[in-house]
């Protein structure tokens, strides 16, 4: 039995989402054990997280399970599935590295935990927000893997909403907590794309 390019793209997308969950789960469990010393959660952040969840998981999940919305389908190509696979693998590699580097400092929301340290190693040596980089790569990978205009753009839109609602607030929180140390870190790094932005 041969799998079509569209079917292969969907299978790889599902495997990517499973990998995302497997990577995140142990860190989420450990994070609950540490005391939060500063919390800047807000409705705006909740909207950003919900948009990312919808665009990178719910909308494509519905599409993979049901084919809806079929009217936005376009022909799938093996080269696009190949590009999407490379992007998704890169996203998962960066996602895993960010969690490993952050360790106990990781949080899904804007929080500072007890004994929080500024992490400047691994991917953080080049960019301040490599987790957002992984989400951007996931959104791009999704656009290549799932041959549907609505679903492809949903991932990028979900990422963009999260990024633009959250990154400035996150950097203000880090400046407030780490002061000149974080300012110096900002001066020598880019936000999400090494050497560019």
Automatic annotation (TrEMBL):
Q: Where are the transmembrane segments?
A: 6-23, 44-64, 76-95, 116-137, 143-165
Q: Which GO molecular-function terms appear in the entry?
A: protein C-terminal S-isoprenylcysteine carboxyl O-methyltransferase activity
Primary location: membrane
Q: Does the keyword Transmembrane helix apply?
A: yes
Q: What top-level class of enzyme does the UniProt entry assign? A: transferase
InterPro entries reported in the protein's UniProt record: ICMT_MeTrfase, Isoprenylcys_mtase, Metal_cation-efflux_comp
Give the UniProt keywords, A-Z.
Answer: Membrane, Methyltransferase, Transferase, Transmembrane, Transmembrane helix
Membrane topology designation: Multi-pass membrane protein
What EC number(s) has UniProt assigned to this enzyme? Answer: 2.1.1.100
Pfam families the UniProt entry points to: ICMT
Please provide the Gene Ontology terms (biological process) for this protein: methylation
- Protein origin, superkingdom: Bacteria
Q: Where in the cell is it found?
A: Membrane
Claim: Isomerase is one of the keywords in the record: no
**Identification of the protein by name:** Protein-S-isoprenylcysteine O-methyltransferase
């Amino acid at each position: 039995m041969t799998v079509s390019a569209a079917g292969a793209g969907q299978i790889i997308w599902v495997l990517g989402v499973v990998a995302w969950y497997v990577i995140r789960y142990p860190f989420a469990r450990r994070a609950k054990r540490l005391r939060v010393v500063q919390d800047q959660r807000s409705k705006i952040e909740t909207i950003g997280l919900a948009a990312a969840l919808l665009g990178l998981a719910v909308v494509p999940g519905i599409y993979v399970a049901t084919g809806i919305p079929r009217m936005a389908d376009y022909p799938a190509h093996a080269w696009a599935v190949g590009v999407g696979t490379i992007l998704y693998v890169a996203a998962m590699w960066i996602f895993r590295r960010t969690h490993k580097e952050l360790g106990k400092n990781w949080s899904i929301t804007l929080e500072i935990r007890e004994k929080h340290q500024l992490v400047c190693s691994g991917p953080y040596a080049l960019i301040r927000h490599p987790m957002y980089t992984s989400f951007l790569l996931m959104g791009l990978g999704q656009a290549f893997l799932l041959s549907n205009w609505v679903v492809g753009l949903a991932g990028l839109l979900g990422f963009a909403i999260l990024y633009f609602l959250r990154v400035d607030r996150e950097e203000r929180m880090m400046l407030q907590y780490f002061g000149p140390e974080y300012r110096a870190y900002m001066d020598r790094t880019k936000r999400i794309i090494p050497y560019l932005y």
